[in-house]
Amino acid sequence: MSKVLIIGAGGVGTVVAHKVAASPVFTEIMLASRTKSKADDIAAAVGGGRIKTARVDADSVEELTALMRAFRPDIVINVALPYQDLTIMDACLECGVNYLDTANYEPKEEAHFEYSWQWAYQDRFREAGLTAILGCGFDPGVTSIFTAYAAKHHFDEIHYLDIVDCNAGNHGMAFATNFNPEINIREVTQPGKYWENGKWVETAPHEIHKPLTYPEIGERESYLIYHEELESLVKHYPSIRRARFWMTFGQEYLTHLRVIQNIGMARIDPIVYNGVEIVPIQFLKAVLPDPKSLGEHYTGMTSIGCRIQGVKDGRERTYYIYNNCDHEKAFRETGTQAVSFTTGVPAALGAEMFARGLWKKPGVFNVEEFDPDPFMAEIGERGLPWVELFDVNLEL
Ligand code: NDP
């Protein structure tokens, strides 16, 4: 018996709304976003009068607290943008509401993301007796829970961790991003970074790459990029000697990205155009396809997992755990493609883990700090089945 407030009516919000509505644990659901009509459309698609909607500017703590005081949710699922993480956490503290998100805080004016800002809320959440669950999408999220599951059941010590993220889907567009274009382009144009022997090693963007073989997909060129879960995983698993994150990109995507950067359209600082201040990357977002619209013609699969090497009972072992998700199947169920689907399903299940008292402790926690077992037992039937392979060639 729990009341949930979902903030953000984009691709991920659509999936969260469908999944939360399908769960008997949530008795009352509200979906609030900047543009109320988008929340209304999602509520209508879910049907059954299950979802109430509201308009909220999540940059405003005042608007958020007014909404929370009126609706009185037990937990907020934040699937707006990373810029809103702190205002939503502030409002949760003011109103005594628990919190869950899928992406770490990033200031609008600086393409830089790290957990320090949200970890700084630890004492305030603990003292208020509230739970904040950070990074409960797929990556971060399921990849972190896969790592926790491996550490709990298959390894005494993890030494090498490689998170591999392949999107082998085809949406038929010359260039589009699979989630919010502004956030996506800011993320993938950053310098690369990985953890080795107790320190971070920086690379030029996309400098390190190699072909990796993905199950049911085959070989795809994979690029080392920095991804936020590396920061919390190396903190929580200090036996890790090296942790890296790989993502596949097609040549066509990389060429477009290079042009976008070279002509200044990836800039995040404001410029004045015809007397109006605009931020080039925000203008670009407005002309690129909405990630939500890609679903209808998307074919193929995503494959995301963890390749791990370490020791168990004094013996070296390798381990690969992954999920493959089909774009067309995701679209049939929720009207969105697999990238939104793989993010929204874990967010909804994470909130349910909280509501059922399984992931409930005062403070601010990354998902790997909770017991992975109840989540792993149910994520398959929610739409994201996983496969384990032992003693395989990790190619790394
Ligand atoms: P979208 O851009 O599709 O949706 C974002 C939604 O948030 C939109 O409805 C938008 O409103 C709303 N929003 C933006 N600003 C505000 C605001 N100030 N107040 C209220 N609502 C606001 O993004 P996605 O659904 O693709 O992504 C959602 C989140 O999920 C992002 O934080 C993203 O980083 C994260 N993500 C995490 C992944 C993971 O695996 N962990 C993978 C993919 C995404 P409007 O429609 O008016 O613009």
UniProtKB/TrEMBL annotation:
Pfam families: Sacchrp_dh_C, Sacchrp_dh_NADP. Residues 137-384 form the Saccharopine dehydrogenase-like C-terminal domain. InterPro entries: NAD(P)-bd_dom_sf, Sacchrp_dh-like_C, Sacchrp_dh_NADP-bd. Signal peptide: none annotated. Gene3D superfamilies: Dihydrodipicolinate Reductase, domain 2, NAD(P)-binding Rossmann-like Domain. Residues 4-133 form the Saccharopine dehydrogenase NADP binding domain. PANTHER family: CARBOXYNORSPERMIDINE SYNTHASE (PTHR43796). This is Saccharopine dehydrogenase. It comes from Alistipes inops. The lineage of its organism: Bacteria, Pseudomonadati, Bacteroidota, Bacteroidia, Bacteroidales.
